[in-house]
Amino acid sequence: MKYILILIITLLLVSCNTSNGSKPKVASSYGTQIDTANSSVAVTFINDYTKHLKKDDESHIYDTNWIDCNPLLTKHFKEAYHSLLDSATKADPELGLDCNPIFDAQDYPDRGFSLSSYDSASGYVTVVATDRHEFAGGFPLVLKVVYQNSTWLVDGAGMINIPEDKRAKR
Predict the structure, then answer these.
(1) Residue 3 DSSP code
(2) Could you tell me which of 33, 44, 34, 79 has the C-alpha nearest to residue 152?
(3) 3-state DSSP helix/strand/coil percent for the chain, to nearest 5?
(4) Where are any strands of DSSP class E within the chain?
(5) How far is CA 115 from the centre of its chain?
(6) Averaged pLDDT, 30-52
(7) Coil, strand or helix: which one is 73?
(8) Around 116, how many Cα atoms within 13 Å sit in the side-chain half-sphere?
């Protein structure tokens, strides 16, 4: 009887401690599981950037100061952004880069983005236009998040640190 009681108590203790400590996941519109804690930094960054671009003047388009001061970006992202702009300016001083490297396009959804999918193994996050009617195909955009210094940061977006084969097809 003593052994049965110990067995029951042990089973109760084990069954009461089933929490695995995982972060909350939500299903995307495509039926995949998305870890919102890791990918939310990408959505926050791209929506902040979209709001930043809505200014009335044109000086904000290649505002390196905004990029340099953004705490959601890695140093690697900032260096790659500057390098891309510098290379484009050297290649064509008058035109420079003929698109926005973060959106990998000339135009962008001005109503922002929402999460579409997240690959936790690679850190690639795909977002789509919040108003999908604004752009045919939803304007998918790929970003990359990495875990650095105890926080999740954006390390790639559009043309910045995203390999050609991982970029959103337009």
Answers:
(1) H
(2) 44
(3) 35, 20, 40
(4) 25-27, 33-35, 113-119, 124-129, 141-148, 151-157
(5) 8
(6) 78
(7) strand
(8) 19
* Residue 116 contacts residue 140 (beta carbons within 8 Å): yes
- Answer yes or no: pTM beyond 0.85: no
Write out the two tokens for 13.
Answer: 């203790």
Query: Residue 149 in 3-state DSSP?
Result: coil
Q: Residue 24 — φ and ψ, nearest 5°?
A: -65, 145
The pLDDT value given to residue 76: 98
Q: What are the distances in angstroms from CA 167 to CA 16, 78, 114?
A: 45, 18, 17
| pLDDT bucket at 166, cuts 50 / 70 / 90 | very high
- State CA 162 to chain mean position distance: 11
The backbone region for 55, taken as left when phi is positive above 0, alpha when psi lies in -120 to 50, beta otherwise, is beta
Number of neighbouring beta carbons within 10 Å of residue 12: 10
Topology (CATH level 3) of domain 24-166: Nuclear Transport Factor 2; Chain: A, (3.10.450)
